[in-house]
Amino acid sequence: MATASTPDRDDPPETLTRLLRAELSAVETYRGALARLDGRAAGARLRQICVDHSRAVQVLRGLLLRHGEAAPASTAGREPIAEERGGDELVATVHALRDHEARQVEAYRRALADPALTPQVKAMIRSDLLRRSEAHVPTLEAMLEAG
């Protein structure tokens, strides 16, 4: 007899693992961007966003550990950053980073709708992780407007 799937101990770690992998990818992507844009004025803002993503990695690892799960140490690789030959490298990079941030915001919003996550985990996502990711989008958009 087949049994219905119910949210259990395996579901929250899967959701949290996906979020963690996305945050690890963001850290790797921002580090790559910072290496490419070394010395530019945008570096300080990008570095702060990278620090925010590094903090999110630590929060998500802690949540996974509380579920008794091992957290991945890295992703398969960073998000590719658009290469625009003959174009403005900063603009192309910031566009790619902004798109990545928008996807991260949507991932956190989907996680908030996951019935397997506890109210405490959802509160952490809502009050900290989602809020920070949402703040990154306008920061990157302002950088694009400034050119």
Write the layout of secondary structure elements.
Elements lengths: L10 H26 L6 H24 L22 H24 L6 H28 L1
Can you walk me through this structure?
The longest helix has 28 residues, at 119-146. The chain has one domain: Ferritin, core subunit, four-helix bundle (Ferritin, Up-down Bundle). With 147 residues, the protein is mostly helical. The chain has helices spanning 11-36, 43-66, 89-112, 119-146. The chain is 69% helix and 0% strand.
Q: What features would you highlight for this structure?
A:
69% helix; disordered N terminus; 147 residues; elongated; Ferritin
Output the radius of gyration: 17 Å
The end-to-end span amounts to: 62 Å
Number of helices: 4
Instruction: Supply the helix-strand structural class.
Output: mainly alpha
- In this structure, how is the largest beta sheet organized? none
State the helical fraction.
55-70%
**What is the helix/strand order?**
HHHH
| CATH architectural type | Up-down Bundle
* Percent of residues in beta strands: under 5%
* Name given to the CATH homologous superfamily: Ferritin, core subunit, four-helix bundle
Using the alpha-carbon principal axes, give the shape: elongated
- Per the CATH scheme, the topology name is Ferritin
Mean of residue pLDDT? 82
Uncertain ranges: 1-10
Give me a quick take on this structure.
It contains 4 helices and no strands.
